[in-house]
Amino acid sequence: MRNLAILVCAATSVFSQTLSVKWDELTAADFEKAIQKAQNTCVLPFGILEKHGPHLPLGNDLINVRYVALHAADQEYAVVFPEYYFGQIFEAKHEPGTIAYSAKLQLELLQETTDEMARNGCKKIVIVNGHGGNNNLLPFFAQSQLATPHDYVVYVFMRPTYPAGRPQLHSRNDQHAGESETSHTMIARPDLVHLDRAASESGADRNRLDLPAGVYTGIWWYAKFPNHYAGDGAAAYTALGEFDMKPCFASTATSIRAVKADQAGARLQSELFEGSRQPSTAKR
């Protein structure tokens, strides 16, 4: 009995010393410990609420990016911010369940969120993007951090790369809710994948615009994929999802580790802020 009591006490002690990576699951006291353990580095997984073909959940990007970020933070400790889906998705406003905030609110909310994260000790914030519609928004947001002085640095991690040996794709067009994305969700939340519905709509490219290369217009996505489905989700399979997820975890963890080690970003940012006060005498 005495040995059992010792084991129970030891297990309890180990459990009490374990800090969740999830911001929202930490107590206030544990949050302070977590920020210190994370070396003031926090992760903001960024998703969206939009249609993902006929077979995937509206929050698919958010589900997958958080799955990756949480596993990455287990490898390289960082505090992970709660669900964040306040991004750019005007091209899907015609689809049920889409939440599309105004451009002004997107930027204001993201700025206030990172400001509040920093006020709580997150001096290095890694935004991990899980939604293609944010590909222009997030680099612009990072650039806009130079407009006024901040005591923290924003980093954006956009897309992992896959190593050699990736399983073969069975579909030529593999984009939104297609073979790869569906395979990923089969790993992150298989209970939310309705593979039997994947062929009920077309994910083919309609190609309804005729513009030369280099000319951009916001309606381009709708012109190609009005069903908000680009590919063939029915071709998805778990082996592809399992293969892709591991390098996603690793590359995200590597990014977190690199951000922790970065000393130049904050120094150069402060140098620019100081120089912007008196450009004629700025250090160069």
Furnish the topology, listing elements before pairings.
Layout lengths: L1 H16 L10 H10 L3 E6 L13 H16 L3 E2 L22 H17 L4 E6 L7 H8 L8 E5 L21 H10 L31 H5 L13 H24 L2 H14 L7
Parallel strand pairs: 1-2, 1-3, 3-4
Helix pairs in contact: 3-8, 6-8
Helices and strands, in order, run as HHEHEHEHEHHHH
The biggest beta sheet, please? 4 strands, parallel
Helix content: 40-55%
Question: What would you report as the Rg, rounded to the nearest angstrom?
Answer: 22 Å
Distance between the termini: 71 Å
For the biggest β-sheet, the strand order reads 2-1-3-4
Show unreliable segments: 5-16
Q: What percent of residues are in strands?
A: 5-15%
Question: What class, by secondary structure content?
Answer: alpha/beta
Number of strands: 4
Shape: globular
Count every helix, treating DSSP H or I runs of 4 or more residues as helices.
9
Mean pLDDT: 94
Please explain how this structure is put together.
It contains 9 helices and 4 strands. The protein starts with a helix and ends in a 7-residue tail after the last helix. α5 (about 135-145) links the parallel β3 (about 125-130) and β4 (about 155). With about 280 residues, the protein is an alpha/beta fold.
What characteristics describe this protein?
alpha/beta, four-stranded parallel β-sheet, 284 residues
Summary of the model, kept short:
This protein is an alpha/beta fold. Helix content is 42%, strand content 7%.
